[in-house]
Design brief:
- The chain has one domain (14-275): Vaccinia Virus protein VP39 (Rossmann fold).
- Helices cover 30% and strands 23% of the residues.
- The protein has helices at 21-24, 29-43, 62-65, 79-92, 128-138, 155-164, 198-207, 224-229, 232-246, 274-277; strands at residues 48-54, 69-76, 97-100, 113-118, 139-150, 175-176, 194-195, 210-218, 254-261, 288-289, 293-296, 301-306, 309-311.
- It has an 11-stranded mixed beta sheet, sandwiched between helices. Strands 6-7 form a two-stranded antiparallel sheet.
- β11 and β12 form a beta hairpin.
- α2 packs across α9.
- Zinc ion is lined by residues 280, 282-283, 285, 296, 298-299.
- Keywords: Methyltransferase, Transferase.
- It comes from Candidatus Dojkabacteria bacterium.
- Pfam families: Methyltransf_11.
- InterPro entries: Methyltransf_11, SAM-dependent_MTases_sf.
């Protein structure tokens, strides 16, 4: 088994504070629709069996991939969010499974997923190289992976750095944002919040065998002034134009990579149900699965399914 090394990384644990992430979107219709329209476009034409939305929260983006893949899974470290939204998600997207787990240590066998997505989560990942290694393990050869991330060198940050003469800013080192109040869940000083240089993310992906097929920009018009001047529909119209002209640049605050993974291992098995793809998130060994519990004899851990959601969280 690969990836059995024991390590512990900090996780941005949304369960530590009572925060309903869906509320964050109430006043951000432009950004929400900008991301959804872009993803609809990216997923158009993609197909597959198992699909993973890493850090998928309350299923904000499920509509973009749901009809494309037979078995969509939303994985999130916040068990509370998954349990609170289970019924709403299942009503809308009945085939979707919800699993509480850590993106660094996922409870899935090798070579399972034909597709995966991560949006607005990479800023919480302090060790993306480790996450990408884990992601490579669970994806099949030719799997397609869509990665959104906060762009460190977007136009406003670049102008700010130039005015300050801060040329160190342009390195590929991730930029740790100062803790912000309620910045998408990071409401404590320990919050993990990184902005990444597109070249750095691309390099880390390539090291694990991913090729960036297409780079796209998103939320070009995310600015309080522009939001005052134009209504959401005008902003979305302008966004479409900006996207078609400037996606190759580092102007936008949010960048999306549409990637494909090449690896030697060929997927041999077809899996029909969720229990078939699960393994111990810690040692990647087999689990003894019963109705509402799953045990790893080697690690001596029992994982539980409560309120319809499996809890495979390990740190
Ligand atoms: C800002 S929200 C984004 C949710 C969703 N992707 C969206 O765009 O609507 C970030 C999510 O990432 C999850 N998260 C953060 N670190 C994680 C980790 N190590 N493993 C799994 N989920 C994580 C949080 O629990 C939270 O639900
Ligand atoms: Zn184990």
């Amino acid at each position: 088994m690969s990836n059995t090394k024991q390590f512990t990384y900090n996780v941005s644990d949304y369960d530590q504070f009572s925060y309903d992430y869906s509320q964050y979107w109430k006043k951000r219709r432009y950004e929400d629709l900008a991301e959804k329209t872009l993803l609809d476009n990216i997923f158009d034409g993609k197909r597959g069996d198992w699909f993973l939305d890493v850090g998928g929260s309350y299923g904000r983006l499920t509509n973009s991939y749901y009809s494309k893949y037979q078995h969509p899974i939303i994985l999130d470290y916040s068990a509370k969010t998954l349990r609170n939204n289970w019924e709403i998600i299942k009503n809308k997207y009945p085939n979707t499974e919800l699993i509480a787990a850590n993106a660094y240590k996922m409870p899935f066998k090798e070579n399972v997923f034909d597709g995966a997505l991560m949006v607005r989560v990479l800023h919480h990942i302090e060790h993306p190289e480790s996450y990408y290694k884990e992601l490579r393990r669970i994806l099949t050869n030719d799997a397609e992976y869509v990665q959104e991330f906060a762009n460190k060198v977007h136009i406003k940050a670049t102008v700010r750095a130039l005015l300050k003469g801060n040329f160190k800013f342009f390195s590929q080192e991730p930029y740790a944002q100062p803790a912000l109040t309620m910045a998408e869940g990071s409401d404590n000083v320990e919050g993990i919040f990184y902005n990444f240089h597109p070249k750095h993310v691309k390099k880390l992906l390539m090291e694990q065998g991913f090729t960036v097929k297409k780079k796209r920009g998103c939320s070009f018009l995310r600015s309080p002034l522009l939001k005052k001047l134009f209504n959401d529909d005008t902003l979305l119209f302008l966004e479409k134009i900006a996207r078609s002209i400037f996606s190759w640049t580092n102007i936008p605050p949010s960048v999306v990579f549409d990637t494909i993974l090449k690896k030697e291992d060929k997927q041999e098995e077809k899996y029909a149900k969720i229990e078939d793809i699960l393994c111990c998130p810690q040692c990647k060994g087999n689990l003894e699965i019963e109705q509402d519990s799953a045990s790893c004899k080697k690690c001596n851990i029992t994982f539980e399914k409560k309120d319809n959601v499996w809890d495979f969280r390990v740190q």
